[in-house]
Design goal:
180 residues; mainly alpha; two-stranded antiparallel ribbon; 9 helices; 2 strands; 51% helix; globular
């Protein structure tokens, strides 16, 4: 659940500066036109939900439904990423254990917006999280929470190898994905 919530928090931070403008423009459209909304966000995705992760926490009893509603507001490609993470089942598991509100609250405390965490640093974070089960189990695990399926993280095409500065001789490593 850590990697999907990390991705969700990052996307939430990326979209935060343009959230109100997207909602205003979306309200004036006869149907969803992602190309128009993406021009506002400046990235290849958007979210038309009135919610963001902080607002999801406003209803502790309904946090699971609110989170699902928020994720459903993303453009199709992002929703597909979360489907591959099997996020809905993970939400259900944490909610049944009365942990969803607590765990989500901890993620909301972390500011992963691009003004605080560069794309390169975010890539390092993704890579570390992806490899964590391998280190813990001594073998390649289901680090992506995607049950062996490829997961494509929008907007982040490649990442430098851990611990090395970026340079011309650097090896770029995609996160077990096809190109964004």
């Amino acid at each position: 659940m850590v990697l999907p919530l990390t991705v969700l928090r990052r996307l939430d931070g990326v979209l935060a500066p343009t959230k109100e403008r997207v909602l205003e423009r979306y309200a004036g459209l006869p149907k969803r036109f992602d190309a128009i909304l993406n021009r506002i966000t400046g990235v290849q995705f958007n979210n038309t939900s009135e919610l963001d992760l902080r607002k999801v926490l406003d209803d502790p009893q309904g946090v699971a439904d609110q989170l699902r509603q928020y994720v459903a507001g993303f453009s199709e490609e992002v929703r597909e990423v979360f489907e591959k993470f099997d996020l809905d089942a993970q939400i259900s598991r944490l909610d049944a254990a009365n942990l969803l509100y607590l765990v989500l609250g901890k993620f909301v405390e972390i500011d992963l917006g691009p003004e605080n965490v560069s794309n390169t640093a975010m890539g390092y974070i993704y890579e570390e999280l992806r490899e964590l089960p391998e280190h813990l189990e001594g073998k390649r695990g289901d680090a992506l929470g995607a049950k062996g399926r490829k997961v494509q993280v929008p907007c982040y095409r490649s990442w430098a190898r851990k611990g090395r500065p970026l340079g011309a001789d650097q090896v770029w490593v995609p996160l077990d994905t096809e190109a964004c």
